[in-house]
Amino acid sequence: MSLAPISVATLAGMKAKGERIASLTCYDASFARLLDTAGVDLMLVGDSLGMVLQGHRTTVPVTLEQMVYHAACVSRGRERALLVVDLPFLACATPERAIDAAGRLMQEGGAEVVKLEGGAPMLETVRRLTEQGVPVCAHLGLLPQSVHRIGGYRFQGRDHASAEAIRHDAIAMQEAGASLLVLECVPAALASEIALTLTIPVIGIGAGAGCDGQVLVLYDMLGLNPGRPPSFSRNFMNGQGSVTDALAAYVRAVKAREFPGHDETPY
Description:
Largest sheet: 8 strands, parallel, barrel
Shape: globular
Oligomer: single chain
Radius of gyration: 17 Å
Order of helices and strands: HEHEHHEHEHEHHEHEEHH
Structural class: alpha/beta
Helix content: 40-55%
């Protein structure tokens, strides 16, 4: 494993070589050090912290101040992995608000890439951010910040019309300047097709093994979820003697294309 810091260009090179990208969420400095040691390529400071750390039912209550705080914690702990940070609920209500929020995440939080949810309505925001020198990770499929609108955490793109919309938005996001794309809870065949079509890396969560990389919520893959775990996740603590071993097992499984397997691919 190279100890050189990973950049967006590094991930693009990994995609070109067919090397899978191992990603995990991270919320603090101690875990950031462990993830770096395990060889995780991308750390995502996700607004999922609202659920796994704060105990909320959704990500909606998470504020920009909280995202800046946790991003800074992770930034101080990691040295190698690319640091991607979520723009929280309504931070992208206008391109101007998104630019201001991204500036804070990068200047105060140490973010190297900002992630935003949404398709066509977010295209102008992606263009404006990239024009200002902000690398963007787009997020399509299941959009957790829109859970109240869509009525729950459901797989997306299972009918022809919605699959076409996701496919179209993915191409449009790349054309608008996005450097990365996360696909969440979409059929494996659709995700694989999009990953093959795009030149930017596509990171999947609940999107099958055909993506260029995988991401999971850290607490889920360590078995720290007291409720029912997501159907697409795996408890990597099983059979491992330490958290460090579990993290390394996850990285190996992603790199070897052993995760996700059939059991972690619902659609």
